[in-house]
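Q: Please design a sequence for this.
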């Protein structure tokens, strides 16, 4: 039986999504510990995005397989009683055998939060990145517009994870003002390379600060060279917001 989960989490106390032998506890590790208790067997999970240390999620999707699902089990309630308060299971479904949290995904949306204010915040420093100088959202939208469409995003890929192709399609991206001096960057694509969103945000902010324009972003993109791109935005501002799957596949999922 294949199960699909929807999760949200505060990534601050964790060493990222993926299990590791040493260091901080990981989200995958904590989830698998809880699942193994619930089902009394070893469980391996697959997450839709391997978020880095300090990165958050509103809509992480996970799948796993189990031999038998106990009758009358409320899986959401059981898992939330066994996991840290910084991670919450929002929903669970029985999924069809051909569902895969990564391979079945058709779109992913990430959002990046910036506190654009004169002073930093004692309460938002784990959940946004502080930028003191005033941000012109119209200029930032112009700066990142060359990234729309299908391109080779090798310039924005951090090394460390082998992929068969660095070509990705960006369907939508936008810088917009939010409440309380917050600025949000939203980007939706077919998929993302390692730290690609953080590298795009960091590069855009650096180009903006230097007074450069979209021509420079186009040149960086065309170079296919990570050394041509600029800074990497800090992890704490990034959120895996939503993962989309084909509607026919979603319709085959049965809510638990």
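A: Design:
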């Amino acid at each position: 039986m294949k199960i699909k989960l929807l999760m949200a989490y505060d990534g601050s106390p964790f060493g990222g999504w993926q299990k590791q032998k040493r260091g901080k506890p990981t989200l995958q590790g904590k989830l698998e510990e809880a699942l193994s208790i619930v089902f009394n067997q070893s469980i391996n999970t697959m997450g839709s995005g391997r978020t880095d240390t300090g990165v958050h999620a509103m809509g992480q999707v996970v799948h796993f397989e189990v031999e038998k699902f106990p009758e009358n089990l409320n899986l959401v309630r059981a898992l939330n009683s066994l996991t840290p308060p910084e991670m919450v299971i929002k929903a669970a479904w029985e999924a069809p055998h051909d569902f895969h949290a990564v391979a079945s995904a058709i779109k992913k949306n990430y959002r990046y939060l910036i506190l654009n204010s004169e002073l930093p915040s004692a309460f938002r420093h784990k959940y946004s990145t502080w930028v003191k100088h005033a941000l012109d959202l119209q200029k930032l939208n112009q700066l990142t517009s060359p990234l729309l469409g299908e391109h080779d995003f090798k310039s924005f890929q951090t090394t460390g994870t082998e992929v068969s192709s660095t070509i990705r399609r960006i369907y939508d991206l936008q810088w917009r003002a939010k409440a309380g001096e917050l600025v949000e960057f939203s980007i939706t694509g077919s998929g993302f390379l390692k730290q690609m969103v953080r590298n795009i945000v960091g590069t855009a902010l650096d180009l903006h600060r230097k007074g450069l324009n979209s021509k420079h972003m186009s040149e960086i993109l065309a170079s296919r060279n990570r050394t041509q791109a600029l800074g990497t935005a800090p992890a704490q501002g990034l959120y895996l917001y939503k993962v989309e799957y084909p509607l026919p596949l979603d319709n085959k999922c049965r809510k638990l």
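Q: Thanks. Anything notable?
A: DSSP finds six helices and eleven strands in the chain. The first helix runs from residue 27 to 39.
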